[in-house]
Design a protein that fits this description.
The structure holds two protein chains of two kinds. Helices cover about 50% and strands about 5% of the residues of chain A. Chain A is mainly α. Helix content of chain B is about 30%, strand content about 10%. At the A-B interface, helix 9, helix 10, helix 19, helix 22 and helix 23 of A face helix 4, strand 7, helix 6 and helix 7 of B.
Amino acid sequence: MGDASTPLTLEEARYLLRRTGFGGAKPRDLEQVVGLPRGEAVAELLEFKPSRFAPRGGDSSEIQDRWIRYMLRVRHPLQEKLVIFWHDHFATSALDVTDTRMIQQNKTLRLHCTGVHRSRSEQVDFMLPLRGNFKDFVKAINKDPAMMQFLNTEDNTKTSPNENYSRELEELFCLGVLDFGGQPNYTQEDVFQIARAFTGWRTREVRGYEREAYFDIDRHDYSAVYNATRGPKVIFKSTGGFLPAGQGRSFTVDGEGAPEIDAVIDIIFDHTDSQGHNTVARHVTRRLIEYFAHPNPDVAFVDEVISASNFDVDFDIRELLRAIFIDDRFYEGVAPIAPGVRKSVKFPTDFVIGTLRLLGIRPRRRDLRVNDSGSGVVRGYLRDMGMTLLEPPSVFGWNWETSWLGSTNVQERYQFAVDATRASGAGTASVRYSKLMDLTLTDPVTIVDTALAVLQVDDQFSGADRQTLLDYLGPGPIDFGDENTFNRKLRGLFALIIQSPAYQVY
Amino acid sequence: MAITRRQFLARTGLLTAGSFFGPGLANPFMRKALADTIGDRYLVVLFLDGGNDGLNTVTPIANGNNLGTYGFSANLRTAYNNVRNSIRLTDSNLLPIANDAGTNTPLGLHPGFAGLHNLYAQDLVAVIQNVGYPVPNLSHDSSRRYFETADPLGVGNGTGWIGRHLAANYGLVDLPAVSVARGGVPGEFAQTDTGVLAIGELRRFNFPYHSTSGSYAAENTRRDTAFLEMYAAASVSGHPSVEFLGNVGNSVYDAAQVYPDLHPLYVADRPSFNLSYSDPANIGENTFRSSTARDLREVAKTIYGVTQGYVDSRFFELRNGGYDTHSNQGGDTGPHYDLHNEVGTALELFWADITDMGVADKVCVLIWSEFSRRIGQNSSGTDHGSQGPMFLIGGKVDGGVFGKHPDIAQYSATFQNGNTRYLQGPASNPFRTTDIRDVYGTIMKHWLNVPQATVASVLPADSGDPNTRWTAPNFDLNLFKP
């Protein structure tokens, strides 16, 4: 059994950085982590000063480009990996939401995901949490102008409560339809009553492009008027494990009106499932494990990291991540592909941005091109791999794992591999192979090993796949001084590795 | 492996399995072994994603005159006017179809669905009212999964209803199914290790560096060999998602030898139909790139490819999103109108196309949505509901109105009873609901010619209360002409 004091092997260090960064780490970063106790290495990863970046742009494409550019250069990729996770979790689409609201939401996700570093002047601003707290995060999402537009909180009024947000708040953001024991976590009545809490909330412009939520008392559903027909403002009468059984919880405990939406969140975070566990903690922990480690994690994995981090009480995101990255089960994906090894399919963002980072390619022009053609735009590759940033397919976010592997999607991965490895020329994005490896190498075995190491998969390639690459290269000595050999064999070798099955998984 | 697609096309006529690919690679797309089950038939499944408002799709025009055992509930237009105000469809704008049989209520399609109505007028459309499943789930995700698996009580393993059929009849990588989508394999087709093709656009469906002529020929052949070796190894790696990846890589490589050519073939042979789908005069100001017209054209191209002996794809899936009309739904005009208009127009163009190809009697289109919406509206839209209409289009479909209109008069002003009840029960039940599995089973049995016993194994009956469970399957709905 490993724990926080267990030193990281080279393979484990690589895996940790692959999962928490884009694609992998530069040898320099890797050296700093190998041999460190897990606890120390993870602390290094987590104790970054959070950035306050906002991807400003005039339209969805421009916002995507700004965000991609930032991800290509960011010093602490874990924060951006988390922003992508929360963007997927609290999915909101620019197809239905004003661009400026999407920019503001992107910043909100970044500020809340692991906590924000407060400047001196912000010490008194209690809206900004010192550490990422999931309960505060959800309360902030309640009032996020993009979310309020996307799931119609702005249209939710006393005369006709709109259930769109309240349903997804329960189904997707906090509880899940069913708990781990297959029992329902909420009823249709709960959806409706929670919708009543959100009646009256609207948004208005504040400064620059930003908006803020405000409470319009005239549009709120008050008990005195509506309880006669709509019943009491009580939720979880038949689920949630609240005692005494059958009475549920009232969300007017802190007063009627504006306080109701925070009270709803407090109650939801007290919800326990049919197995007596905190429902929110299990729901979001499973999701984070699926994102950072592997699909369908054992219940024991979920429960252990919750208990180790006290997440079901504190809801501190950083502490939960620390527990996940220290747990033995996290490292079940370290070994190369084999039956029983916990492999997970790379997100398009990891595939594309990770590859560009590993190859040192700086896409050119405002729209970030890998080559001079209009088809070489980074955002376009992501789109055709099934992941248009800011435009998740629905409120459910993206579908992960084998859903990333539609025929068109994998073809785009293969095409990107060719385009990226071919990138060359004055004034355009280029791979400078001479910076990646020693081009005077002549021995095919050494060349294959070196290329695999550059792409951080030398420990992931099977002997058979290695032999395939050697057969492709042909007998040595290889002379990369020869232009034809360089253009075909070297670029071809890198393209094949990027297209390989092993490179499609973490 | 070195043969080019051009050479390949030049030598095609009718292809037989194994004539093209080398040993060790099954030839997935040339198979002509389908005759036993579906013969020369096609099934196109169109998903209206988001929950289409059924009550504003098949709508009472006036009250029925057969109160009989139904009582006040037969006054469907009165009930409709009570529950819909700002999104109400004007009676005179509705496009008339046959009456609801039980209540003799005149029904009409949404004015935006003129395209579908034109097909209806040609006796090509079955309107199946009030289709659902026991214990309606108001979650998009859960309900969509129930429709896709046809397993609402969750007793199976989560595979799709068509996927189970495919798995029983075809090998791992030779599935005659194509999804027109940017994403992965749709739920209907899901089963273990599928190699279903998911193609966004045929024109862009290309395996890179396929030029096998000129100075790169030998080099590209070596790359292909290396690629195929790695993917062949992945498909027997013993790791489920990596095996899936291996199968996808192999099938994509194979399909890329043929499928991209279906585009120029179609464009060359059917220029006017090709242009019709994107012509603003036909589709208005819709964004063609993301439209149902564009996706249905990809289906038409593929079907044309089948008729010309290039491929053998028989099952298609596509979707049109945007039906989650919680707000700003509109009535006689507006977003819901635009959605229906886009889908209806695309279907009409598609139908003209395949009719001209001579295969209209061979094609069946099934249109579904994960649920209908709440009977009572909210401020400007509708929240999630339960049973709703399905549509079946085809040259062999027996056009008309089937099933029974939902019991909207039973709706009360409060939320609790805001959904249509699911009641199977006896056929004499005034508001009996049709189960999704009766529709699927009828399609399998009467369209795909799957034997009754096989259908029953793909769609096993529920146990429990016959009023609220699907205990008596009926795979013989009269949806097809004899």
